[in-house]
Amino acid sequence: MQKIYTKVTDQTHFFENQNPVELAAAYGTPVYVYNERILRERCRDLKNMVTYPKFVVDFSAKANSNPALLQIVRSEGLEVDAMSPGEIYIEKLAGFTSDEIFYIGNNVSDEEMQYAISEGVLVSVDSISQLERYGRLAPGSRVAIRFNPGVGAGHHEKVVTAGKKTKFGVDPVFIPQVKEILERFQLTLAGINQHIGSLFMTGDAFVKSLGSLFAIAKQFPELEFIDMGGGFGIPYKKEDGEAPLDLKELGMKIDEALFKFSEQYGRQLTFRIEPGRYISAECGVLLSEVHSIKYNYNNKYIGCDTGFNVLSRPILYDSYHGVEIYRGSDTPSEREEAVTIVGNICESGDILVKDRHLPEIQEGDILGILDAGAYGYVMSSNYNNRLRPAEILIRESGEVVVIRERETLDDLKNHLVLL
Ligand SMILES: Cc1ncc(COP(=O)(O)O)c(C=O)c1O
């Protein structure tokens, strides 16, 4: 194999003793490749980011819910959150017990709430009406409430999940009503939670939000835990030298805030965070093969087999992903040029990379789309009746295992009823 452009995976030894061109040939493309060692490292980074003793990291499985990866995350001592009954179901399949799952509901039906309750999973509600609904379904039980601390953060307006312009969380002005409903249904408020948004690269907004969250917590003296949310970012432009989030500095600030709050609160509560991306993004590279190269009115298009049905982040959020180039043949790339890399979906928005300078790409090259382990496979679809890809895992031993088979045409028949 020729390494045409492989800076990031060389540095991180992403492919261990494997060769991406051979992996693509053996398992087909597109294929999500995960590295177990990197996944474990990210879990440990977060577990050890503070010295505060009662600190729990919940992996936000919405970022990647492949059960094999969830099993690894669990073996690192993390717990999980869930955003739907389906996630609870998959998490249990991966071995998580009821008390290791935290269901953060949003506009859920009686049936969904009942499912979580019957599975013994703690539910967080995010509106007054949902709290009433919960009270009617499970009077006398434990519940949590997601508050909106009034501070948001994130890389795109679509992922800012707190502050004055989002649908999430309970506005603290409703605390008197919250107390009345808790009392009426004899509910115990076990915890409060927030999630201010996704992908912050400095912890400023996160730390700022803690002030508001703690002010809310002080109005509920019997809490067991406070969940501070996720959103910890990763550097998607690392090949250009983008620095990672300074976890050490952020950890120190969080530590200080937690110890100070505990003193004021009069005891040490459990504090939780619920990061998704930070844990799984960097352990995933999506391999794709180039099938066509063309010029359209002076623009060079590299056509590969990864459409937005396989990786949706670029079309949803204009997200940037680093791209590497691996080549099976001996032909070198003579020059660098600006290219647009597109997929095989019948939509002009099906663009993975726009106008980027890269070494010349040839048909048959394998592209490695970096940092694809979060919000990758989980957002994939059968749009255009295309098949969802396979997922493979490079184990710490260097062995490669398939952790999800590629779909087949027969899968497209599932649940269909013909006239
Ligand atoms: C409630 C909640 N918790 C956790 C997360 C995980 O966010 P991230 O992957 O940015 O850490 C999200 C993502 O949007 C979320 O909505």
TrEMBL record:
Pathway terms, separated by semicolons = Amino-acid biosynthesis; L-lysine biosynthesis via DAP pathway; L-lysine from DL-2,6-diaminopimelate: step 1/1
Looking up HAMAP family in the UniProt record yields: LysA
EC numbers, comma separated? 4.1.1.20
Give the domain of life.
Bacteria
Task: Please list the residue ranges annotated as the Orn/DAP/Arg decarboxylase 2 N-terminal domain.
Answer: 39-281
- What Pfam families does the annotation carry? Orn_Arg_deC_N
Does the entry feature the keyword Ubl conjugation, yes or no? no
Catalytic activity from the UniProt record: meso-2,6-diaminopimelate + H(+) = L-lysine + CO2
Q: Which Gene3D superfamilies match?
A: Alanine racemase, Lyase, Ornithine Decarboxylase, Chain A, domain 1
Query: What CDD domains does the annotation carry?
Result: PLPDE_III_DapDC
Name the Gene Ontology biological process terms.
Answer: lysine biosynthetic process via diaminopimelate
* Positions of transmembrane segments: none
Q: Which residues carry this modification: N6-(pyridoxal phosphate)lysine?
A: K62
Q: Which UniProt keywords apply?
A: Amino-acid biosynthesis, Decarboxylase, Lyase, Lysine biosynthesis, Pyridoxal phosphate
One MF term from GO for this chain? diaminopimelate decarboxylase activity
Partners and quaternary state? Homodimer.
What is the role of the protein in this entry? Specifically catalyzes the decarboxylation of meso-diaminopimelate (meso-DAP) to L-lysine.
What EC class is this?
Answer: lyase
What are its cofactors?
A: pyridoxal 5'-phosphate
Q: Where is substrate annotated to bind?
A: R277, R313, Y317, E347, Y375
The name under which this protein is listed is: Diaminopimelate decarboxylase
Q: Which organism is it from?
A: Robinsoniella peoriensis
